[in-house]
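Sample pair:
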Amino acid sequence: MKSCRFVFALLACALLGACSSGDRTRLVVGGGLAGGMATEKAEELALPGVTLRDFSESSDLGYVLRAHGGLQFSRGWAAIVELEYTDVTFDLDGQEADATEVSTFASLRYTLEIDLPVRPYVKAGLGWAASLEGSEDSSFGAKGAVGVQVELTESIALYGEAQYTEYFSPTYSITGVGVESESSTVGLHAGLELKL
């Protein structure tokens, strides 16, 4: 329920900001691929017969597939909903833990309004993620990104961005290992966006 309220508030703020603009509202859809580093900081690790606390961090490379859509209210402001699939394998005390998850984020993006085909932007959002391995409660997260859009035409743009995502206190069980942790990802995304 809180997530729905946040999305409505985000859309309302973007719409109010767009009312002073002469630009028409457009639908944006897109998708892309990312590679990056995921870090898992386990606060408690429950292996068969033993529980470890303040477990050291584990990092590894993984990939992310993304699809997104939303509304662009002006040349600068857009409200975006992103769906991402993440796959990364962690080494937890010698045991491999394949972490795959699906996440959904509502984000607000501002692209610098300049008359050039290459335009930088910033983006911030809130959302949640659910694991596809074992069992896990959905974990709340926040993300931020900086990137650039390259407009090929008025309706087609390529984008590239560096993104940081932090997930807060997920508790889950993967490959027989119980983990209470905080996790974060840093990735480089590239993709295509259509403005309809």
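The radius of gyration is 19 Å.
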